[in-house]
Amino acid sequence: MDIELLRDYCLAKPAVEECFPFGPDNLVFKVNGKMFLLASIDQQPLQFNVKCDPEKAIELREQYPSILPGYHMNKKLWNTVIIDGSLSTQQLKEFIDHSYELVIKGKKK
Predict the structure, then answer these.
(1) Is the distance from CB of 43 to CB of 81 less than 8 angstroms?
(2) What are the tens digits of pLDDT across the range 1-51?
(3) Closest-CA residue to 15 (of 109, 107, 94, 90)
(4) CA neighbor of 50 nearest in space, from 72, 70, 64, 22
(5) Structural domain count, the chain
(6) Angle at 93 between CA 91 and CA 95, to 5 degrees
(7) Which domain holds residue 85?
(8) I need a labelling partner for 43 at 20 to 30 A (CA). Which of 5, 24, 81, 98 fits?
(9) pTM here?
(10) What 3-state class would DSSP assign to 2?
């Protein structure tokens, strides 16, 4: 997955907007005004931060070396996913979907 595929996938979700609140190198995707994905567009390999259920976040970090505690984020709730080829596109999409769903559910409360 490259930045364009990541962008297209995120923007295809309902009510998603993109913005650059942290400068031109950090692409943010929000749903209903709340961030669910942050990507550093100039970093190689590409990586992104996604929200994650705290227990699942720990499990994923233990299982995959390319998943780390969220860089510059609440490490309990966010993971940094490095796109280095060790994870499938389907897995990456599942992480994005999970983050999106957590934010949507949080907004409904």
Answers:
(1) no
(2) 999 999 999 999 999 999 999 989 999 999 999 999 999 888 899 999 999
(3) 107
(4) 70
(5) 1
(6) 70
(7) 3-108
(8) 98
(9) 0.91
(10) coil
